[in-house]
Amino acid sequence: MFNLVLVNPQIPNNTGAIGRLCVNAGASLHLIKPIAFDIDEKAVRRAGLDYWHKLDLHVWESLDDFFANNNIGNNSHFATTKTDRPYFEAEFKDGDYIFFGSETAGIPEDILDRYKEKNITIPMTKEGRSLNLAISTGIVLYEAIKQNYTTFKERM
């Protein structure tokens, strides 16, 4: 239904939890290399529990490889702390790509600039600078599902 794209993920437990989220939400997971761990690593499997084999997983050699093989435009959203546009003001459609950057660096600036009108953020207080990646993906993905619940319900 939706495509979660993780650009250069760093923490295996987060990626495992996001994989589990994707299976339960009917979403595909796209991992963009370099990845800071082996996706067969025990921590990924542990966090993904027994869902990992059910995951619609796509691994890309680079951002260039991903963009060359996927038509990205109005069907995309880029999660970042560098915008004021809240995720709940975005209009999500079935099949959209929702991008999240690495835990340490976020989405590269040139990508954020290229798709500036598609940047979204999760509002936070001044006390924190970011949320855990797995939590962030869940927040945004379920807003997308909420907006498309009729279609989602048909796939349950």
Descriptive notes:
By secondary structure, the protein is α/β, with parallel strands linked by helices. The chain is globular. It contains six helices and six strands; from the N terminus they run E-H-E-H-E-H-E-E-H-E-H-H. The protein has helices at 12-25, 42-48, 63-69, 109-114, 133-147, 149-154; strands spanning 3-7, 28-32, 56-60, 76-79, 97-100, 119-120. Helix 1 packs parallel to helix 5. Helix 1 (12-25) links the parallel strand 1 and strand 2 (28-32).
Put the structure in a nutshell:
By secondary structure, the chain is an alpha/beta fold.
Q: What share of the residues lie within helices?
A: 25-40%
Tell me, what's the shape?
globular
Report the biggest beta sheet as strand number plus sense, adding barrel if it closes: 6 strands, parallel
Q: What percent of residues are in strands?
A: 15-25%
Order of helices and strands: EHEHEHEEHEHH
So what's the oligomer here? Answer: single chain
Measure the end-to-end span.
Answer: 11 Å
Rg, Cα atoms, Å: 15 Å
Note poorly predicted spans. none
Output the number of helix runs.
6
Structural class: alpha/beta
Total count of strands: 6
Describe the strand arrangement of the main beta sheet, using strand numbers: 3-2-1-5-4-6
Mean pLDDT score, rounded? 92
Short descriptors:
alpha/beta
Question: What is this structure's SSE topology?
Answer:
Blueprint: E1 3-7, H1 12-25, E2 28-32, H2 42-48, E3 56-60, H3 63-69, E4 76-79, E5 97-100, H4 109-114, E6 119-120, H5 133-147, H6 149-154
